[in-house]
Amino acid sequence: AQSVTQLGSHVSVSEGALVLLRCNYSSSVPPYLFWYVQYPNQGLQLLLKYTSAATLVKGINGFEAEFKKSETSFHLTKPSAHMSDAAEYFCAVSVAFGNEKLTFGTGTRLTIIP
Amino acid sequence: DAGVIQSPRHEVTEMGQEVTLRCKPISGHDYLFWYRQTMMRGLELLIYFNNNVPIDDSGMPEDRFSAKMPNASFSTLKIQPSEPRDSAVYFCASSPPSGTDTQYFGPGTRLTVL
Questions:
Q1: Per-residue pLDDT reduced to its tens digit, B31-70
Q2: A40, burial (CB in 10 Å: exposed 0-12, middle 13-18, buried 19+)
């Protein structure tokens, strides 16, 4: 069975600083990997996804993530944090070749310090 | 595109009452998912449908929960009788026919059972 582990339930960064949110996955077969963002009182919105094409994936709002098979990681980064990035971020995994289920991590709440 | 529509957005009920949550997926999507989000357990997949047929209901917590999808544009999640521990935010999501693709989430229904 596949799973994801998000390291750090809360992360705080200063406005303009690098954002790094960590995600490690476990899967017995090549995974599809996703990052979703949830703003307060809203549903989840896709930031980016990896589906076995390029290992560096660019998403919306300046975020990107790099798939590293050797490290079983899919960390989310953004060079310069903005106040509007304050939200909860979820990493998710699904198994390729027809498995529709997503398994979500426990989430990381990102706080931006002015 | 209206996105996934959920109703009601907020529901407050008393223990023992029946609760029905509603979802309209995005037109053309043939996967529909019901999730529950709580502080303690995070985001849990309850059940999902493909072409109106339930595929996996292993996440449904107990017999008090039931879900139906009578047609491609409507699904319900029913709790009868409701209990205080059912208080959570319930999300509906839909996904296009390719399967392991992006899930589009609705805004959620915040359920409070007194």
A1: 999 999 998 888 999 999 999 999 989 899 889 999 999 9
A2: exposed
Q: Is the separation of the CB atoms in A93 and A25 below 8 Å?
A: yes
Query: For residue A96, what pLDDT band results from cuts at 50, 70 and 90?
Result: low
Who contacts A10 (Cβ-Cβ below 8 Å, separation ≥6)?
A: A108, A109, A111
- Whether A95 sits inside 8 A of B100 (CB atoms) is yes
3-state secondary structure chain A: CCEEEEECCEEEEECCCCEEEEEEEECCCCEEEEEEEECCCCCEEEEEEECCCCCEEECHHHCEEEEECCCCEEEEEECCCCHHHCEEEEEEEEECCCCCCCEECCCEEEEEEC
| pLDDT given at position B48 | 92
* pLDDT of res. A99: 56
- Amino acid identity for residue A89 in this structure: Y
CB atoms within 10 A of CB A100: 18
Longest pairwise C-alpha distance within chain A: 44
Q: What are phi and psi of A110, to 5 degrees?
A: -100, 125
Asked if the C-beta of A61 comes within 8 angstroms of chain B's C-beta atoms, the answer is no
- Cβ burial, residue A83 (10 Å; 0-12/13-18/19+): exposed
> How far apart are the CA of B39 and the nearest CA of chain A, in angstroms?
9
Sign of torsion over alpha carbons A22, A68, B95, A100: negative
